[in-house]
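Input record (one chain):
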Amino acid sequence: MNYVVGVDIGTQSTKALLVDEHGAIVAQRASAYQPDTPKPLWAEQWPAVWLKAVVECVAACVSDAKAAGIAVGSIKALCVSSLYGGSGIPVDTDMRPLAPCLIWMDRRATAQVDWVRENVDLERLYTITGNGVDSYYGYTKMLWLRENEPDVWAHTRYFLPPNAYVIYLLTGEVAVDHSSAGNIGGVYDIARRDWSDEALDMLGIPATMMPERLVESSEVVGGLLSQWTEQLGLEAGTAVVAGGVDAAMATFAAGVTRAGQHVAMIGTSMCWGYINQRVDARHGLISMPHVFNGQHDIYVFGGAITAGASVTWYREQFCHAEIEAARATPHGDPHRLLEASAAQVPAGADGVLFLPYLMGERSPVWDAQASGAFVGLSLFHTRAHLYRAVLEGVTFALRHNIEAGRKGAQSLDDRLIVVGGAAHSDLWMQIIADVTGYPVYTIEQDVEAAMGAALLAALGVGLVSREAAQGGWVTLVERAQPDAQRMALYEQRFGAYVDLYPALKPVMHRLHTS
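The corresponding structure, as predicted from the sequence alone:
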């Protein structure tokens, strides 16, 4: 029996799992951390944090495998996926990081967005890249570094996505997968599947800062360097596979490989995406080559910046009683207590609406100065009402993206797959079914992007065929069916949700600049 390791570097944790060539999980590990947020709307991470977590998780998985009697020589490949790294890690000619990575959540580049809008042919940029202009995108973050960190800019040799940087350290090879390259936005030609010299020239970003080697997500970048054998427990020369952006990887893990299939990944953020063969930036969604069949298929997605992060924020700020109560019980989870209370609140939270714009918002709003809000409060409402309103607000953001996606999708299947931490919540799955009108399915196994990485590792070294990889390694289970009565109520509330942002936008912006 042969084995592979899949790794996913996330915003708040890194996960690794070791599976056999049929996808059976032998070992898995996770290591938690938090991004640095030194100023409002800033979010960054030093890559040493990610590397440490990767080493810890992989080494633990390999150790468990050895304890189970698995020969290290039978572990044939390792694949690394990662969060969208925004700007990427600026490294010098010795490949040393010059500054932290400005990750997807960072929204500091508002002035650079204005500059692009005023100085660049936007229609041409949309046509080339299939993407828009926002401080979410990596290229605007690069421009921020150019304007605000001139020493960093002057010494930058490459901008490397998180997975590419870790893979470089493991193999000594510099390569960027197409999904990570496309997600940067304004520097990648989506039709040619290559860096765009024309777009780079318009933006004033030297083409030499983009690594020359672009690879498929299933491609072997190189072999593991001998210096890592002791720390990781793997043999020197073990194949290291390119991987890709975590949202696309989680989508692949769910078996999504054909046009029309769509998945919502709800973790710290929310990414809803589908497979297509064409793009149109005017619909407000994000496009990149898919991690499977990426020369043909495009992963088109939109999402909320603070999905699970909104839930965590609410819990940490307002639910100390539930946190303490959970600590007093074995394996206590405050979310279960909160969910039990919120389940007693009727759909619609008795008139409370929540806008989950706690770090600005991505698609289809695209406003770094958007802010969160509870609307409709009265003395009648309790913390349970507000907790339910948070779950509903994030779900309204999901539907907002689905409605935008319908405009460009060739088709959308009649079911919605949900992956990520939100899938642990029965209440949230039912809310999603009722708000979107789709039956909701989740992955039976407690895995997402890391399983996609493991499957790509197996594909990359020929342990599975492309045909077998299309079906995935996971089992989907039905979690919720939409209820007609609640759907009708949510249809009205969704209309109010959509109207709320434009009504509050002038005030949001005044508060942001005052």
